[in-house]
Design a protein that fits this description.
There is one protein chain. By secondary structure, the protein is α+β, with helices and mostly antiparallel strands. The protein has three domains: 13-116, GMP Synthetase, Chain A, domain 3, CATH 3.30.300; 122-207, ACP-like (Non-ribosomal Peptide Synthetase Peptidyl Carrier Protein, Chain A, Orthogonal Bundle), CATH 1.10.1200.10; 213-292, no CATH class. It has helices spanning 26-32, 65-76, 106-116, 131-143, 162-176, 182-187, 191-199, 261-275, 282-285, and strands at residues 17-19, 22-24, 37-46, 50-59, 84-87. Helix 4 packs across helix 5. This is Carrier domain-containing protein. Residues 208-228 are annotated as: Disordered. It comes from Glonium stellatum. Residues 134-197 form the Carrier domain.
């Protein structure tokens, strides 16, 4: 619906790509990338975002894929960032699979993409030594861009939204054993600044020892729920010391909270109810909270 309250039908609900809780219409991306031949956009599973968009084209008409991907981010916003662009030839297809009436079978196309999709590695990680270049390599791999196009001094908010930042944090932890948290991107928005921050931390070190105290939910201090301490009702509180490794998620680490302290507190409380059944706690056992769909396909 536009500003004049005119409703437009832009596609089928089952074709929607749900990225971090936001509905992305493939038709919107397809319309924006119409300068290349025969574009069809499908969503494939992503570990953090839920789904990420991939464009399948007949041919790129000589336009570099990275240029197309950058133009989508600049024109539609970071949430529409394409995970990859693939040609029919790369998928081993001569033409798009269609129904009897000529409509593209996106479910078949999606299966083909998931079967053949492989992330683009733009530079060998073994040739990268400095932390700055290691971070640039992770960004390049995440955004499917040449490492040379990842800026060092510009803000990452120019090309990444909160979901993309979460995906970056996950890859950073897996590849380097170090952690960055969403609130830290605000203080250190440039890759160069992030590298300097990480260089001050040891391997598998989450940073400041008082990081866990950055946010404490309000409420009755006599309640059995205590975010900044052990849980009175937890069977583990009497036999396990607070961990010295990575801290539990903070306000801006939890995507579903969307920066809202009340939603963050409710998320913790609901999580604790489930954890306590198994003798677990938020502080001792929770490392991350990620958004997922409310249904699964067999």
């Amino acid at each position: 619906m536009d500003e004049n309250e005119i409703l437009y039908v832009i596609g089928r609900y089952k074709d929607l790509i749900i990225r971090g809780g936001k509905n992305l219409a493939p038709a919107k991306i397809e319309q924006y990338t119409k300068r290349v031949s025969g574009v069809n956009v499908v969503g494939i599973p992503g570990p953090i975002a839920g789904e990420v968009p991939v464009a399948v084209v007949m041919q790129t008409n000589g336009i570099p894929k990275t240029d197309i991907m950058q133009s989508v981010v600049q024109g539609l916003g970071p949430e529409y960032a394409l995970e990859a662009i693939m040609t029919l030839e790369e998928l081993g297809l001569r033409q798009f699979p269609v129904t009897a009436i000529g409509r593209v079978c996106k479910n078949i196309l999606k299966d083909g993409v998931m079967k053949h999709f492989k992330p683009v590695h733009t530079e060998s990680e073994t040739n990268i030594t400095s932390t700055t270049n290691q971070l640039r390599a992770i960004w390049a791999d995440l955004l499917n861009m040449p490492i040379a196009k990842i800026p060092v001094t510009a803000s990452v908010f120019e090309f990444a939204d909160s979901i993309t930042l979460l995906r970056f944090c996950q890859r950073l932890w897996k590849k380097l054993g170090k952690k960055l948290y969403l609130e830290e991107f605000k203080l250190h928005p440039a890759v160069e600044q992030q590298a300097k921050l990480l260089d001050t931390r040891g391997l598998h070190n989450s940073g400041s020892s008082n990081a866990i105290n950055r946010y404490q939910p309000e409420g009755n201090q006599n309640n059995s729920f205590e975010y900044n301490g052990l849980y009175e009702n937890s069977s583990r509180s009497s036999r396990i010391e607070p961990r010295t490794g990575p801290r539990p998620p903070q306000l801006y680490d939890v995507a579903v909270a969307n920066g809202d302290p009340h939603r963050f507190e409710q998320t913790i409380k609901e999580t604790v109810k489930v954890l306590e059944r198994y003798g677990l706690s938020w502080e001792l056992d929770v490392e991350d909270v990620i958004p997922i769909k409310d249904y699964f396909l067999a």
